[in-house]
Structures are given as C-alpha cells and as structure tokens.
Write a structure and sequence with these properties.
Blueprint: H1 25-42, E1 55-56, E2 59-60, E3 67-71, H2 73-81, H3 86-94, E4 98-103, H4 104-113, H5 118-124, E5 130-132, H6 141-151, E6 155-158, H7 162-169, E7 176-180, E8 183-187
Parallel strand pairs: 3-4, 3-6, 4-5, 6-7
Antiparallel strand pairs: 1-2, 7-8
Helix pairs in contact: 2-5, 4-5
C-alpha cells in the first residue's frame, strides 16, 4: 500500500497578539485614561448671560431721568484737579437731574488714599449724594462697580480709570461719564446731547 503524502499548509503560523493590541489589559487601562483626559479637555462650560429685558439692541430703555450715576474714586480726584462742581457739571453734561451714588467701597478707597485725596473725600462725604452699602468682602471698588452694573443696568458709571472703562465697555447698555477738557463727557448714551 502506498502511503498518502501529507502536504504542509503554507502560512500556517501560530498567531501572536501584538504589544499594542487593545485586548491586552495594560492597553485597555491606557485607553480609558486617554478617554478621560479627552473628555475633560473637551468639556467647555458655556454660559450665556441673561440679557436684560430693558435692552433694545445696544440701547438701554431703563436709563431715564433722574439718572443714577455711580461715582468712582478716580472721577472724584479728577473733578477736584479740574476744580469742577460735581452735581451742576453732571446736570450740564446730561441736561437732566442726576443722583450721584457713592458706594462704601469707593469711600473706603478714598479713606485709604490718605491726605492727598482729603478734598475728594470731603466731597464724597457730602449729604446730598446717595450712599450704597456693599455686602461683599474686600474694598476693591472697580470689581464692586462692575458687578453692580452687570446686575442692574440702571446706572451711568462715572470714571476716568482706563481699565475700568475697558471692562464696562464690554457690558452692553451701560454709559460711561468721564472728565475731559475741563468738563464732563458721556459716551454710549444714545440720547445724549452732542457737543
């Protein structure tokens, strides 16, 4: 009897799992870690601030006479330097009744500045101006004013501080009053008189 010849199969090699195969435990753990990192990086918290109902595009319909003017430390010191009277010059600028409002943060900042700003402090302590008590900690007046203006868009902010002006310009519907050329000027108030 003849013997049947057994032929060898070509490419019949034992399969070996590669080092980077996803089925290995060490590679599964790496994949989970990378997935967590990606998910943390992709999570962008987006918050759309609530738009005030008084805004009509950039026009703020809540701003009507008598105007509430939040006064900053810088504005008071410039008023003293230019020898301007606070209330009458404000009324000349806006052609309407104004209520200057001084927060407790601004008062604290003026008191901290010392003897150089004693006249500005005396003007701020005048009984004719309205006072607002601040409930937050710290006495950084710029943050206080920006926070108050973002919550209630019924104020005009009086300041000569560049950084504060830049921050307030980002908030729609809030006019800015400043001292320039020996008088008060207003920006971003649509019905303001042109001079």
């Amino acid at each position: 009897m003849s013997r049947v010849k057994k032929t060898r199969k070509f490419a019949a090699v034992k399969r070996i799992i590669g080092q980077r195969d996803a089925r290995l435990k060490k590679n599964q753990n790496k994949g989970e870690d990378q997935g967590k990192r990606k998910s943390k990086g992709d999570e962008v918290i987006r918050e759309i601030p609530q738009v005030s109902s008084s805004l009509f595009f950039q026009y703020n319909s809540a701003l009507v006479p008598p105007y509430n003017v939040l006064v900053d430390t810088n504005f008071l010191s410039h008023t003293v330097q230019h020898k301007l009277e606070l209330l009458s010059t404000m009324m000349d600028c806006l052609y309407a009744k104004c209520i200057p409002i001084i927060t407790s943060c601004v008062m604290a900042e003026l008191e901290k500045l010392g003897q150089k700003y004693r006249i500005a402090l005396r003007i701020a302590r005048d009984e004719r101006w309205e006072r607002l008590q601040c409930s937050h900690k710290g006495v950084y007046a710029d943050d206080c004013l920006v926070d108050r203006v973002q919550k209630h868009k019924i104020y005009i902010v009086a300041t000569n501080d560049r950084d504060l002006k830049r921050r307030i310009r980002k908030i729609p519907g809030v006019p800015i009053m400043s001292v320039a050329r020996g008088k008060y000027v207003i920006e971003r108030l649509p019905d303001a008189p042109e001079k």
